[in-house]
Design goal:
Layout (H helix, E strand, L loop, with lengths): L1 E5 L5 H12 L3 E5 L4 E5 L4 E5 L2 E2 L5 E4 L7 H16 L3 E3 L2 H7 L2 H10 L7 E4 L2 H10 L4 E4 L10 E3 L2 H13 L4 E5 L6 E8 L2 E9 L13 E5 L3 H14 L3 E8 L5 E7 L5 H7 L3 H12 L1
Parallel strand pairs: 1-2, 1-6, 6-7
Antiparallel strand pairs: 3-4, 4-5, 8-11, 9-10, 9-11, 12-13, 12-15, 13-14, 15-16
Helix pairs in contact: 1-9, 5-6
Length: 291
Amino acid sequence: MRIVVLGNEGSWYVADLQRAARERGHVCERIDYGALVAEASTARNTVLSGDEDLAAWDAVVIRTMPPGSLEQVVFRMDALHRLHESGVQVLNSPRAIECAVDKYLTTARLARDGLPVPATIACEGFDQAMAAFERLGGDVVVKPLFGAEGRGIVRVSDPDIAHRVFRTLERIGAVLYLQQFIRHPGWDLRLLLLDGRPLGAIRRSNPTDFRTNISREGHAEVHTPDDREVEYAIRAAESTQTRFAGVDLLYGPDGTLYVIEVNAVPGWRGFQKATGLDVAERVVSSIESSS
């Protein structure tokens, strides 16, 4: 098999996928989004990287969706859709990526499908954001609509700080995405799913930060999920159409289990260290089975 990874140069995850692919007898190469060239004519309708026609490859694994202009992001998604439609296996699918990278769309779909989510309000204006701040109890988590690894997430519980944060976000043309802060026991859960089944789970904690992301020095330990945790994670992956997903769950003070996020480009370095599971090998094996 020939596998392309859309990922950053020097990425540990790209290297791990290449290692796993090599061990299973496959070719695995990394490319940047900037290398993509799309052609559309009666003679040729495809996506290229250099002289390579990516439609001739067996699979494309998405390991990053870097920031860019609206046109750049739309073009990247168009190229992924074109590859998917031409029969190339894309992990995750373009539809899943479009949903999961958009925090509001993800939360709205989870709520639509009956999964408990923190009360959430998204808007564009300062006045609406200040009203939302009050409606959500004056203690909120403000997140970028697009983002990962906890970057850009802040907790705001002071009206004066809220005023400054919301004004700043309005001025730079950002969407103001506010979630009610859920008081929790100091840890959350990350379940990693592949092909509709959990590979395993970890419990993440951080004594100095409400963000438990491993990339932010959070601590991970192996966790055995119960039936409800597994059910919620599977349903969350189905809601977002993600085949390979990291689902974050959080318990509130009354025992309510919330689905916080679904990540369609999930990291597994901390998960692998805690569980001992070779995730890249599982991913490559899944690609084989679906070819």
